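During the first year of the project, the team set up a workflow for recording each protein of interest as an amino acid sequence followed immediately by a discrete structure-token representation. This format lets reviewers and collaborators read both layers of information side by side without switching files. As required by the reporting guidelines, we include two representative entries from the current panel. The first entry is reproduced here exactly as it appears in our internal archive.
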Amino acid sequence: MGRETEPLLKVEDLVTWFHTDDGVARAVDGVSFDIREGETVGLVGESGCGKSVTALSILRLVDRPGRIERGRILFRGRDLLDLSAREMRRVRGKEISMIFQEPMTSLNPVFTVGDQIVEAVTLHQKVSRRQARALAVEMLSRVGIPNPERAVHSYPHEMSGGMKQRVMIAMALVCKPSLLIADEPTTALDVTIQAEILDLLCDLQREMGMAILLITHNLGTVAGMAQRVVVMYAGRIVEVSPTFELFDSPKHPYTICLFKSVPRLDAPLRGRLDAIQGVVPDPRNWPTGCRFHPRCPYAISRCASEQPPLVEKAPGHRAACWVIE
């Protein structure tokens, strides 16, 4: 395969486990997917499915007792798992950046937001602090923060949740990364601010040409931003599809159940929404066979004993299911 056709990021058979006193939690258990230059890929699933651990594994930020057991994480053809700690620090923030779920805990409360952005700049670029501060002001302006010259002197507690999230975006993008990992970037915000933040990310993506891995449980967010969707359940990928195709014709029972549990404006008024029965199982004791089978309304006996492979059900659309064609 020619270099020009290689994905920007290619995750192959990624396994990340947590070794605890109560057993081994197999949080990510054989995950493979890719992201192309400039593309937005949505990674969706319920809480506890392994989405955030997948993101932290890509950046090698999994804390003990977690450990990447095996797999490859190829970024521009280079395996990030082979890099030294020092080389990996050069990648983080410069080539791959991440926006975390909660800006309250991601920003340091004792430093101004300007100082925190300046630190990100000086870590990766050979510029003076004065130049770095000018870049911080410019970036705060680009993410829509009013009076950025004054905002650089503000502390996180002096800002609203929406403004703090904009600061996080400014910090993540100030070094113009090729890939942005956005982990539930609007979780703690009200609906109006959520829409503003997502519009901002789309605008900045078009302007900077970066790829985005958007981690969310909100299918509406995925519909508006992503070109492809990766559906994750119980540490594994159960479906991968172009976004339109997934919304038009989901193949895996888990994805079908996710869609049924989402309210729709064009749906007739009726009783309660369909909910997926049960809960995501304990990663220390995943079910045998297809891990969704205990909750699946379509399950047959084979589902409990054999793990279905991820196979193509339609062009560019793969799913792991013994039942649905």
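The second entry, processed by the same pipeline in the following quarter, appears below.
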Amino acid sequence: MTATEEFTAGGSRDPHELEKFRRMADAWWDPEGIFRPLHRFNPVRLDYIRERACEHFGRDTRDIRPLTGLRILDVGCGGGLLCEPMARLGASVTGIDAVPDNIEIARVHAEQVDLDIDYRATTAEDVLADGETFDIVLSMEVVEHVADPFGFLADCGRLVAPGGLVFAATLNRTPKAFALGVVGAEYILRWVPRGTHDWRKFMRPSELVDGLQAGGVEMVELTGVVFNPLTGGWSRNPRDLDVNYMGVGRKAA
């Protein structure tokens, strides 16, 4: 999976990663283009965020806008594939990305579909420096593209308000993930451009947990996300974290 964000020494920008995603910015909203895998992946992560957020904040999942009144920050928002459905669920959404081209694409698309989303070309540490906090922070398919993953996760944790949640997703650093997430996805199936992922940046679940804990967030659940080649769809599998996985963490009130 792909997304963008940040990192240099002492910060979050990785120039190589930023340039890579700048070249792909125009393709975000093409469901059959280079971000097709992310469009296919989106429903399972959206359902997960909605379910766990409703459980935690005592909302009715049958409500059309169950996240009304909650502030959500999507870190590394790309073209806004998560921001827009979160806004439709009633949340007040801020999307940040270190690639200005991505933010411009996101803004234009949000205007076209009449959604009010606060998009900013900035980084997690800059938002943190401004003293802002959010009820929910999303870090989905981002950490594998940053230069200092541990520091990035800690910043995401610090951006969560007391009693809030952070959702994170990435790829596990396993031989299976290399075979499927890099060789299979980039070279055989050609789902994403070659060079999209660096297997060395994939993150083991224990590392994800430690990074968020450094930001004051306790991971409460991890679940695998697996691809079914027969249906072309993704589904949750809590027993299989070998390749793609995601989870939710909680900050004490």
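For the second entry, the following points were noted during internal review. The two ends are 32 Å apart (CA to CA). Confidence is low (pLDDT under 50) at residues 1-10. Both points are flagged for discussion at the upcoming steering committee meeting.
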